[in-house]
Write a structure and sequence with these properties.
The chain contains five helices and no strands. The chain has one domain. It starts with a helix and ends with a helix. It is an all-alpha fold.
């Protein structure tokens, strides 16, 4: 009987270790190496836009690997990379007050949405993830991305 209890305890311990490893992988893959670099990238644009001084922007490359991780997680058509590309297009075109407002709004919305998504993913990773291939519901974040891109395109092409 004691041997059976030891076996069960060991299996529960191993299962707990596998879940913890999956949670750590999920957090590292999608938050630390996904959302965090994208937040830094959008913050990189926030200051120059806040001062309406595009000369403050340097040529920091987009964190493509991080954008790809979020695209894989969300599995949607509109991604932060598409939004970042459109913001870049706006900022590289002839700057006008309207275009700067469009880009400023998009950057601040992306920072807000990604920060909220980061908190939600941290919660999910620590409470619901029990395997590396856990699929989080990203429909609301995908809707938010689509809404931002639609607003940007309408405002840009009507200006």
């Amino acid at each position: 009987m004691a041997g059976g209890i030891v076996i069960i305890t060991n299996r529960l311990s191993e299962r707990g270790e596998r879940i913890k490893a999956a949670q750590e992988w999920y957090e590292r893959t999608f938050i630390i190496e996904g959302i965090d670099p994208i937040l830094v990238y959008f913050h990189h644009y926030a200051l120059p836009l806040a001062f309406s001084d595009l000369n403050l922007i340097d040529s920091t490359p987009a964190p493509i690997e991080a954008f790809t991780r979020i695209q894989v997680l969300c599995d949607g058509d509109v991604t932060p990379l598409a939004i970042a590309g459109f913001i870049r297009k706006i900022m590289e075109s002839e700057p006008t007050e309207t275009k700067l407002k469009i880009a400023t709004h998009a950057v601040s919305e992306m920072i807000r949405i990604l920060s909220t998504f980061r908190k939600e993913l941290l919660e999910t990773a620590s409470t619901k993830v029990n395997a590396k291939h856990y699929k989080v519901n990203t429909s609301s974040i995908e809707d938010s991305f689509s809404k931002i891109l639609d607003q940007m395109m309408k405002a840009f092409y009507s200006s």
